[in-house]
Design goal:
By secondary structure, the chain is an all-alpha fold. The protein is built from seven helices and no strands.
Length: about 190
C-alpha cells in the first residue's frame, strides 16, 4: 500500500482539495451578513466548482471505482444518483433570485446533501479506492481530472448523460458555451 510520501498527488488528493474549496464557500455562505448580490456571486462560484468536480468524478473516479472496488457498480450508481439530485438543486438555484425565500431553502438542502456526499466519499470510498487501485494509475487520473476541470461546464446540465463516452464528448462543448455565458454575464 502506498503512503502520501511516495505516492505524489493522486486522484483522491485532487478530489479532497475540491471538497475543501467547496466547504470553504459553504462556510462563507453561512455567515449570514452577505448582501443578496454577494450571495448570488458565491452560489454561482460554488455551483461552478461543484459542476467541475462532478465532471471529474463521473469521468475518472466512478469508472475506476466500478473496476477496482468490490461492489463498485452499486457504489458508483449511488454516487451518480447523488450528483443528479444536486444538479437539479443547482439548476433550481440558477433560476431563483437570491432574495426569493425558496433560494435559502434550496441552498440549505444542497449544502446538507453535498456535505453528506463528500463525507461518504472521504470516509468510505476514497480509502477503498486507494486500497484497490494502482498508485500510478491514481496519479495519472489526477492529471486527467485536473485537465478536464479546465474545460468542464460551469453550470448544471441535469439532462446531460452521465455515461461514457457521451459525457466525454459533450463536456468540452458545454464548457465552452458556459464560459461564454459567464463572460457575457459579467458587468
Amino acid at each position: 500500500m502506498s503512503t502520501p510520501d511516495n505516492r505524489g498527488e493522486d486522484l483522491v488528493d485532487v478530489l479532497i482539495h475540491d471538497h475543501r474549496a467547496i466547504e470553504e464557500k459553504f462556510g462563507e455562505l453561512e455567515t449570514g451578513s452577505l448582501s443578496a448580490e454577494r450571495r448570488r456571486q458565491l452560489v454561482d462560484a460554488v455551483v461552478a466548482e461543484l459542476v467541475r468536480h462532478t465532471v471529474a468524478e463521473e469521468q475518472y473516479l466512478y469508472p475506476t471505482v466500478r473496476r477496482v472496488v468490490p461492489d463498485g457498480d452499486r457504489i458508483a450508481e449511488h454516487e451518480i444518483r447523488d450528483h443528479a439530485e444536486a444538479e437539479r438543486d443547482m439548476k433550481t438555484l440558477e433560476r431563483l433570485d437570491a432574495t426569493d425565500p425558496d433560494f435559502e431553502f434550496v441552498l440549505t438542502k444542497l449544502m446538507a446533501e453535498m456535505r453528506q456526499h463528500l463525507l461518504e466519499e472521504e470516509v468510505e470510498l476514497f480509502p477503498r479506492l486507494r486500497a484497490g487501485a494502482d498508485p500510478s494509475e491514481l496519479r495519472e487520473l489526477a492529471r486527467k481530472a485536473q485537465a478536464v476541470k479546465k474545460i468542464a461546464p460551469t453550470r448544471p446540465h441535469p439532462a446531460m448523460p452521465d455515461v461514457q463516452p457521451v459525457n466525454k464528448l459533450l463536456v468540452p462543448a458545454l464548457g465552452l458555451v458556459d464560459r461564454i455565458r459567464d463572460a457575457l454575464k459579467r458587468p
